[in-house]
Structure formats: structure tokens, C-alpha cells
Design brief:
Chain A is an alpha/beta fold and 445 residues long. Chain A is built from twelve helices and 13 strands. In chain B, the strands form five sheets. A two-stranded antiparallel sheet of chain B has the order 1-2. Chain B has a two-stranded antiparallel ribbon with strand order 3-10. Chain B starts with 5 loop residues before the first helix and ends in a 14-residue tail after the last strand. The chains are: A alpha/beta (445), B mainly alpha (628). The interface between A and B is large, with 92 and 92 residues.
């Protein structure tokens, strides 16, 4: 045991008030379940901006007896492991503006504070509640991914910072999580996290972290109250790296093992050729992360809120995403809108198929996953957060009653789905945001 | 706070409006829900009943103005005022609030500790170790807050991803520094040898490097801690150089490096900012990087608060190449041209010439940046941004413009300051392809986007958001669909819910229809002459880019005020408060008196109270974060 650990333990033991942020104290609590799962459960949330062409999205028929809609056709190969959920809505995302309020709340179900930045506030996202539940069980607590850079500026027309439109994962109400956009960097990160430190690297990292956290505590006493929060954020992140280093350097006592081999030979290129390849590579990264068990929680954004990525690479599409979503009932724009929606669903289907092809024991990684697909609007032309397009693929460890189109009473809270998913993940909650209970029919009786 | 876009177009003088008129407005439209004990949302009209409430309840007033102007209030279903009445109220209240806030005098904000954004990080490493690599692209991008810039303290979050990247980057940088001659010379100012122990040499190195890395003097006990770290690394088997680099690697992950620290003011009164904090404010404003030796020396000598010293420092720093960092960061975000490489990139199939020519793309991207810097360095009037006889050009741009320009024959490919021929239509920012492209869709031009861009980025008077739940426009059931852009937009404007604002937005944008998506000139579009008639809300008509430039020059006060607000917000790294608008007013006044010279603008910002001073900051527990 090296000196850093001893000293910190002594301080903790002596009950010295270090002013550690709440997240650190939270992490100190032992997990309810002991030991690694024989078959871990994973959750990924994929967010698509700008809503859907509703008539082409909604399947005909309900329950097990339903037919995939034109937009959902790419999911034919995983239909028996799919849940199509109709009529959910996100009450706390109504009003405000057409996009930021909706998008930022897709995993938090919380009304964001209208601000150019000074007092940014959202809720904690459902993926992060799951990540907290399994913290320490995998090398990375969660993976935040995207393909388009954080949107610049403040939207002066509606009065929101575009930070809101570029983040769906929030570890605290004031901490949006930065995303990795470069697929090769993701792979390198997964690879290194899985391989663990080489030689005396763990020891060196521990020395370094001890030094810089000491600097942070010293600085903390010298700055104003608001600035202390920034330093707490710093301390909490460094402390979680330190914990990772400690776990990794435990040597033979190391509990975690990669469930599939990784090799840098498989690393994707630095610069993907285009948007389509970029997106596909990110799907691959989620699949690799889940297969190897490097992390169990991932979020991915197909684009930022109000994304106007050009989809002219699709046959028959001549415009950008947001532009087309304001179809004004123009038949041609509606047609293009559907093609764009369908392309997104096809990427989602690709991920599901990849996970299905990955064997794990008797089953597949998809059996042990819950892959959410969500947009924060239904009809993009109306900026409507009612009747959201929501899908869940994967067996959820045998807990999900897949193979169905479930149609709920109008205005069933989206948060209820998250209550059910948290339950399936082994992180049950009484309530999540405006939930009124679990979403009936999602979990097997 | 910003002005309202009505001002941008309505040339008519303000009608007599006063406190009573505003009170009458609120009484008519808000009384039903916002009075007495049952007032909705804690917004109680009675509290706004006297003129003193403009100071006492400034926040409530500001929120009322914002919500009324945006059309959020009165809510759907209640009797609502016409757009003109809303704006009349908002315009008056905005001015009255500023007046009331300024009556209390100019006041600074608190000291702020902020993380370096990724450009600042990369530039600081460059200047610290003489390392010239693209480090910024290896770090996560930063979102923007405040006045719309990514150096705003409030939105510089630190995610787990940042923490990991800082660890990786520090290792990469110090490994690189150990291999390269120049960085090694910078770092190893001492070596162990005759009469010098390893610890002594390491201490000498840390005493030199750490104060520069942390951008302030470093106490002996902190140096000692880094010497101890060096010792620990030696015991792990690292040699002298490896152990020194390891300690420096730690320094690069330390919050003292990653954050710009401004010590809190625990007193009861506003005070001068700590000299080293001020040195950093100046250098990160004008260089987007760390202070140089000269600034450190002035800070150490306690001379940085002297106005003459500051004026000298500003001029000296603007002339330095590093001010390109400021130009790049500020203009790229002010004009949104940073997005040109991303979502706003013109479609490669439709604009193959643009897509295939990397040099042209680079020239287009750098034109507004270099133009901005030249205006500063040459101390020209900031009105040059609206109209100018000069621009930055290269042979590629000359060809793109279809002009004959007096380029330097020995360096035709180098960006250079050139005089434009008469009637070139390329003077000012709105003649630049980069600006025209980001205010377009990637595949077509849009008078709406360009009009909104002028209102927002140039005049600082963004249009209000579209009303919620605008009914979708139905396609015409009989007859052919509208063909031209103007016909389509005229249809859009036939809807009364849209017409009020779009009449003002689109009219400005049409004047730029002579420029295609990539800013090339066109007289015809799809075989028809381009229609560039612009129109203002008051019915005044103008034609094409030249007409638009005149319209904007007639409203130069709006533009100047917007530029001052943007730059002050950038310099302070935060959003401006009502009280800051007095500083803005004062700077606008000085600019007007001094021919709108660009260096006056920068000097006045650096000399302003909010930039040089810090308010009292009571020690408190801070915001409490709560678990869900």
C-alpha cells in the first residue's frame, strides 16, 4: 500500500472535514450488491434530434400483433427483442422553446433553467443514476459520445446557452458531461482502460494525483464560494481517476476482467470519411465497450438540438435535418424527413444487430442490454413533446417484455419508462422526476 | 441586456412613453393574474407601482420585459398586446432599467476562477514550453455562456473526460518536451553537477518554471512539495530529467495550471484586482494565452493599475503575433464563422469548387479574422466592419470575387491588406464569404437566416422567437406552388402570426441575395435576375449590398454598442449585468469622441472598472449541490 492511500485513510478515519464534494462521499458508500455480476447488464441511450414524421413512424397494431412501420423497417431482424412505446410524453419539457428545453430533458425529465449560462440547471440523467449504481465494477463508469462538436454560442433568440442543446448526460444538475467525438480516441480510451496501467504507471499516477489534489484543496481555501464548486468538480473527477488507478494496481486481486479481447489493430481511423461512417464507428465503439464490459452505460447523440447536419448523402434528400423537420406539411419535405428518420433507425438497428452477434454464455450481449432510442419531439414541425418516438431494444437481462408495440393512455410520463429501466438495471428508485410509477407492461410480470 | 430589434428597423422617433404608460400597459394586460396574494409566479404588480421599483425590483422588471417582448406573456388565450405595443413597452423599460442601474454608479463583478478553455490551454503550453503542436483538437470542445463565448467561467465545466484528457495531455507534452531541443532549453535551466545536488538543480528548475506555469509567484513550500515529488519519482527509478519532467507533468494537471485563479476579496468594498490576476485577464483577453515576462514584471512592480502603463501594454500586445489568438477566438464566435468547418460547411456536391480547393477554404475562413486584427493593429474605425475601402485578400479570393485587386505580385497567395476597387461590394464583414456562408443553409441561401444574422450578430437586436405552435402553412390547393424565394417568403408572411417579425428579418436578408452560399457574386439565379430589394418595417426601400451598408451605417450606434457589449463580455469572460451597461455606455461615448478607433475600444475595456477591479465577496457556504 503506498503512502497516498494511507494518508487519505488516516484523514478520513480522523473525521477531518476535507470539504469533499457530495459525489465523493456518495461514492464511499458500498454497493448494495457484492461482487461482479456473472452477466452484467448494459444500458445505452441514443438521442435523435428534431423529431419524426409521425404517420410513418407509428406502427399499425398493438401488443405482439403489430407490423413495423416504414420508418421502423430496418429493425425487422431484432423485432422480437424490441419494444415500441407510443404516447409517452415529457411534461417538464413543454414550453420554454422548441428545442433546448426538450433535448436537455430527454434523460432528466426536468425543466431546465432558462439562462445564457450563469445559472445553468437541469436534473440528473437516468444513465448517470445507472452509472452510479455500478461505479467501480468496470474501468469506465460511463461513456458519452457524439459526432458533432458542442454547438457554439448562446441562442440569443430564445435565451438559452447552446450547452443545453449539446448534452443529454448530466451527472449533477449543474454538470453536463462532455462527449468524445473521435472514434479512434474512444477506442484508445477503452483499450487503455481495459489493459490497465503498465509497469509502475499506476504508482506514478497515484503520486501525481496526490500532488494535484493537495494543490486543489489549498486553492479551495483561497477562492470565493462559487469558485469552490469548480474546484469540487475538479476534486471529484480526480478522485474517481484515483480510485480507478487504485483498483487497477491491486494486481492479482483485480476483480474486473475484459470479457472479450481488444487490440489496437482494430482501432478505427482518426478521421472518418463522412457523417455516415462516423456514426457507424461510434455504434461500433458502444458495441465494443459493452462486449468487453469496459463500461455498462453509454449515451450517444446523433446530433445536437436543432441539428441541421446535411443529409444530402441519402438518395432523395436535398436539405439539412432541422430544415426538413419544419416540413410545413409539404409532401416532399415529409418524404425527406422520413428518409432521415429511417436512416437513424437503421444505425440503431445496426448497433442492436452487432450486440446480437456478440455471444455471451448461452445468450448474446443484446440479451443483457437495454438500448434506448429517443427523440425529444414528436412532429418536429410543431415542436411537440407529446407522443414521443421511443424504442427500447434488448432483453434487459430477461426482464423486458420485448416483441411488442405498447400503446399507453395519452400523456403517460416518459419518466415512468425510466423507473422501469432503473428497476431492470438493478438500481430501483421510488420516483424519477415526474414519474407516477413504473411503465406497466415494459417489465415481465 | 440587449436592445430590441424594433430599433433596428423603425426609424421613427420614440413616442412619448413614461413610467405611467408602462404601468398602464402592465395594468391592462397582466392585472388579471398578477395582483394581490394570489399573484401567479410570485410576480406581484403592486410591487412595481413606483419608479423606485426599477432599482428595487430590477430583476422582476427585467423578467417582465423579456417575457413580454418574447411573446411568452400574456399567455395564450389572454388578451395580448400588438407587437408594436409590446416593443414600445420593452424599449422604454429597457432604457429605464439601464438608467436606474447606472444611477448607482459603475461597479465591478466578483473575482472568478475559471478553467482554461481548450484554445487557451494549447496556447499556454505553446508559450510555456515553446511547443508548436495542435493540442486543442485533442481536448473536448467548450460550450459558451455569457455573451456567447467559450471563455465564460460559468460554462467551463470539468467533466470526467476532461480530467482524463488533462492527464494524457500532460504526459504527451512532457514526453515531447524531453525529446525536443527548444522546450528542453526552456525547462532545464539547471543541471546537477559540481557543487549542485540533484535536489538543488530540480529546485532551481521549479522556481523558474512553476511561477510561469501557474502565472503567479509560487510560495517556497509549494516548490518544496514539487521537489519532494521529484524525489519520489527518483525513488521510482526515474533519472534526473525523467523525474523533473514527471513533476512538471503533475504541474500541468494541477488546478493551479488548469484554472485561472483570482483570489476572493474578503473585504467590504470593491478593490483592485490582484496584480497577477489582472495580468492574466489582460493576456487571456488579448492573446488567449499566458502573460509574458514583461507583464509579469509589471505585475511584480505593482504598476499594472496605472492607466498610462495599461494603454502602452494594450498597444504593445495587439502588435504581437499572439493577438491573432484573440482575433481568431473572438471573431470566430462573434460571427459564428467557427462553424464553417462543421455543420455550416457548404455542400460539396453543389459547390465543388469550394470543396475541392483547400487553399480557398482557408483564405475564406481567415479573411474576417485577419481583417479584424488589421483593424485593431492599424487602429482604424470599428465602422470598418460595416463598410471599408479595404479588405484582406489573396489570389484565390481575387478569383473567387471575380475582381482585379492590387495584390503584391511577389506574394499573391499570402493574405494581405488591399484597397478595393469602386463598387466591389466586398467592403465590410457582410461582403465576406465566410460570413455569408454561415448565414446560409449549406445548400441554399436564406434571406431569413441572413436577416436574423444581421439583427443578432451585427446590430445586437435579435428577433423574438417564433410564437409557439405556429400553425403549419398549408400548401396552395389550386394554382402552382410559389417559385421564387420572395414568393415563398411572401406566403410565409401572409400569416399574421409570422408577418410582424418576418417583414423586418427578411427585408434585410434579401439585400444580400447577390451572394450565393459561398459568397460568390451572382446577378441571376435559376435564369432570373436576382431580386435584392430590401425593405424596412417603416416601408423604406433599399437595394442590394450597397443599400444595406447605408442602412447599417445610419444605425451605427446600434452596431457599435453591440460590438462593445460583445467585446466587454469576452474580455470579462461572463455575461453582462444591467449595471455593466453603464460601462458599455461610457465606452460607446469615448469611442464616438475618438472617431470609433479600434484601439480606443480595447483600451477602454482594459481600463474599465469591471475589468480592473473586483467586488467584495462575502464568504459563504456556496451553492449546495443536492443529490436527486
Amino acid at each position: 500500500m503506498h503512502t497516498t492511500v494511507t494518508r487519505r485513510k488516516l484523514l478520513h478515519g480522523a473525521g477531518v472535514a476535507l470539504g469533499l464534494p457530495w459525489l465523493e462521499s456518495l461514492r464511499a458508500a458500498p454497493p448494495a450488491r457484492v461482487g461482479p455480476q456473472t452477466k452484467p447488464l448494459r444500458m445505452a441511450a441514443l438521442y435523435m434530434p428534431n423529431g419524426v414524421n409521425v404517420p410513418n413512424w407509428t406502427p399499425k397494431g398493438t401488443g405482439r400483433d403489430y407490423a413495423l412501420s416504414p420508418t421502423l423497417e430496418p429493425l425487422a431482424g431484432v423485432k422480437d427483442q424490441l419494444l415500441v412505446l407510443s404516447n409517452l410524453w415529457n411534461a417538464n419539457s413543454k414550453g420554454g422553446d422548441g428545442h433546448y428545453v426538450k433535448e436537455a430533458a430527454i434523460l432528466t425529465c426536468t425543466t431546465i433553467k432558462k439562462t445564457p449560462g450563469a445559472d445553468i440547471a437541469n436534473g440528473v440523467s437516468v444513465d448517470q443514476l445507472m452509472a452510479r449504481r455500478v461505479v467501480g465494477e468496470t474501468p469506465l463508469p460511463s461513456l458519452e459520445l457524439g459526432v458533432t462538436p458542442v454547438a457554439i454560442g448562446v441562442d440569443a433568440v430564445v435565451g438559452y446557452t447552446r450547452v443545453y442543446g449539446s448534452h443529454i448526460a448530466w451527472s449533477t444538475p449543474t454538470a453536463p458531461l462532455a462527449r468524445e467525438l473521435n472514434p479512434r480516441s474512444v477506442y484508445e480510451r477503452l483499450f487503455r482502460a481495459a489493459a490497465g496501467p503498465v509497469g509502475n504507471a499506476a504508482k506514478m499516477d497515484a503520486l501525481l494525483l496526490d500532488r494535484v489534489m493537495d494543490d486543489a484543496r489549498r486553492m479551495r481555501s483561497n477562492v470565493g464560494a462559487a469558485d469552490k464548486i469548480r474546484l469540487d468538480e475538479y476534486l471529484s473527477n480526480m478522485r474517481s481517476i484515483e480510485e480507478r488507478v487504485q483498483r487497477a494496481s491491486a494486481g492479482s486481486k483485480r476483480v474486473w476482467k475484459a470479457r472479450a479481447p481488444m487490440s489496437m489493430d482494430q482501432a478505427p481511423p482518426e478521421r472518418p470519411a463522412d457523417h455516415a461512417e462516423h456514426t457507424k464507428l461510434m455504434m461500433d465503439m458502444i458495441a465494443v465497450a459493452f462486449q468487453t464490459d469496459t463500461t455498462r452505460v453509454a449515451t450517444f447523440m446523433f446530433g445536437n438540438a436543432v441539428s441541421n447536419v446535411s443529409f444530402r448523402f441519402l438518395e432523395g434528400v436535398t436539405a439539412g435535418h432541422h430544415d426538413v423537420s419544419h416540413h410545413q406539411n409539404d409532401a416532399d419535405k415529409l418524404r425527406q424527413y422520413q428518409l432521415i428518420n429511417r436512416w437513424h433507425v437503421a444505425q440503431y438497428a445496426y448497433l442492436a444487430e452487432r450486440l446480437k452477434s456478440m455471444k455471451e454464455g448461452e445468450g448474446t450481449v443484446l440479451d443483457q442490454s437495454m438500448i434506448l432510442f429517443a427523440s425529444a419531439l414528436s412532429d418536429g414541425n410543431k415542436h411537440d413533446p407529446h407522443k414521443l418516438p421511443i424504442l427500447v431494444a434488448g432483453g434487459g437481462g430477461g426482464r423486458l417484455a420485448t416483441g411488442q408495440h405498447l400503446v399507453f393512455a395519452e400523456d403517460e410520463p416518459l419518466a415512468n419508462l425510466y423507473v422501469s429501466m432503473l428497476d431492470a438495471f438493478g438500481a430501483p428508485v421510488e420516483r424519477f422526476a415526474d414519474s407516477t410509477g413504473p411503465l406497466v407492461g415494459v417489465l415481465k410480470a | 441586456m440587449r436592445l430590441f430589434f424594433a430599433l433596428a428597423c423603425a426609424a421613427a422617433p420614440l413616442a412619448a412613453y413614461d413610467f405611467e404608460a408602462a404601468r398602464g400597459f402592465l395594468g391592462t394586460y397582466c392585472k388579471a393574474c398578477h395582483t394581490g396574494k394570489t399573484a401567479v409566479g410570485g410576480f406581484v404588480l403592486e410591487r412595481l407601482g413606483d419608479a423606485a421599483s426599477l432599482t428595487r425590483e430590477a430583476g422582476k422588471w427585467a423578467s417582465a420585459v423579456r417575457r413580454v417582448h418574447a411573446g411568452e406573456m400574456p399567455p395564450k388565450g389572454s388578451p395580448a398586446p400588438a407587437l408594436e405595443a409590446r416593443e414600445e413597452f420593452a424599449r422604454w423599460a429597457e432604457g429605464a432599467l439601464r438608467g436606474a442601474a447606472c444611477a448607482g454608479g459603475v461597479g465591478p463583478g466578483p473575482a472568478v476562477t475559471r478553467r482554461l478553455n481548450r484554445e487557451e490551454y494549447a496556447n499556454t503550453i505553446r508559450d510555456l514550453f515553446d511547443i508548436h503542436l495542435d493540442l486543442a483538437s485533442g481536448l473536448p470542445g467548450d460550450g459558451a455562456g455569457g455573451e456567447g463565448f467559450d471563455n465564460a467561467a460559468e460554462t467551463l465545466f470539468l467533466s470526467p473526460l476532461h480530467a482524463e484528457k488533462y492527464m494524457d495531455m500532460a504526459k504527451f507534452v512532457t514526453d515531447f518536451a524531453g525529446r525536443e531541443y527548444k522546450p528542453r532549453e526552456r525547462i532545464f535551466v539547471a543541471r546537477p553537477g559540481a557543487g549542485v545536488t540533484q535536489d538543488q538543480a530540480a529546485r532551481r528548475i521549479f522556481e523558474t518554471v512553476l511561477p510561469r506555469a501557474f502565472r503567479r509567484p509560487v510560495a517556497a513550500d509549494v516548490v518544496a512539495q514539487y521537489v519532494a515529488l521529484f524525489g519520489a519519482a527518483r525513488r521510482q527509478g526515474l533519472d534526473f530529467q525523467g523525474a523533473v519532467l514527471f513533476a512538471l507533468r503533475s504541474a500541468l494537471v494541477s488546478p493551479q495550471f488548469l484554472f485561472r485563479v483570482e483570489p476572493a476579496n474578503r473585504g467590504a468594498e470593491a478593490v483592485a484586482l490582484d496584480p497577477y490576476a489582472l495580468a492574466s485577464r489582460i493576456s487571456y483577453f488579448l492573446w488567449a494565452s499566458m502573460p509574458d515576462e514583461f507583464l509579469f514584471d509589471l505585475a511584480a512592480a505593482g504598476r499594472l493599475q496605472e492607466p498610462e502603463v495599461l494603454r502602452y501594454v494594450v498597444r504593445r500586445m495587439l502588435r504581437n503575433d499572439r493577438s491573432l489568438g484573440f482575433a481568431q477566438s473572438f471573431t470566430g464566435q462573434w460571427l459564428h464563422t467557427r462553424e464553417l468547418a462543421g455543420e455550416k460547411a457548404p455542400d460539396a456536391k453543389l459547390f465543388p469548387g469550394y470543396a475541392a480547393d483547400e487553399e480557398l477554404r482557408g483564405d475564406i475562413r481567415f479573411q474576417p479574422i485577419l481583417f479584424f486584427r488589421e483593424v485593431l493593429v492599424r487602429d482604424l474605425a470599428v465602422l470598418s466592419f460595416l463598410d471599408s475601402r479595404h479588405t484582406i485578400a489573396t489570389s484565390n479570393l481575387e478569383k473567387h470575387f471575380g475582381l482585379k485587386l492590387p495584390l503584391n505580385n511577389n506574394a499573391r497567395k499570402q493574405p494581405q491588406w488591399v484597397e478595393l476597387p469602386e463598387g466591389s461590394n466586398r467592403g465590410g464583414l457582410l461582403g465576406m464569404p465566410a460570413v455569408l456562408a454561415v448565414a446560409s443553409y449549406p445548400y441554399r441561401t436564406s434571406p431569413v437566416l441572413r436577416g436574423a444574422f444581421i439583427l443578432d450578430a451585427i446590430l445586437g437586436t435579435p428577433p423574438p422567437p417564433p410564437p409557439p405552435n405556429v400553425p403549419a402553412l398549408e400548401e396552395a390547393h389550386n394554382g402552382s406552388a410559389p417559385r421564387t424565394m420572395r414568393e415563398r417568403l411572401a406566403q410565409h408572411r401572409a400569416n399574421p402570426a409570422c408577418a410582424g417579425c418576418h417583414a423586418r428579418i427578411d427585408g434585410l436578408g434579401f439585400a444580400l441575395e447577390n451572394y450565393d452560399v459561398v459568397g460568390a457574386w451572382r446577378d441571376q439565379e435559376s435564369g432570373k435576375p436576382v431580386d435584392t430589394r430590401g425593405e424596412l418595417a417603416d416601408g423604406a426601400v433599399f437595394e442590394g449590398p450597397a443599400g444595406l451598408r447605408k442602412v447599417l451605417m445610419d444605425r451605427k450606434e446600434l452596431f457599435v454598442r453591440n460590438l462593445v457589449s460583445k467585446m466587454l463580455g469576452y474580455a470579462l469572460g461572463r455575461g453582462l449585468s444591467l449595471r455593466d451597461s453603464c460601462t458599455v455606455d461610457r465606452i460607446v461615448e469615448r469611442l464616438r469622441a475618438n472617431g470609433y478607433r479600434a484601439q480606443t475600444l480595447v483600451e477602454e475595456i482594459v481600463l474599465s472598472e469591471p475589468f480592473r477591479l473586483q467586488s467584495a465577496q462575502a464568504e459563504s457556504g456556496g451553492r449546495v449541490k443536492t443529490a436527486p
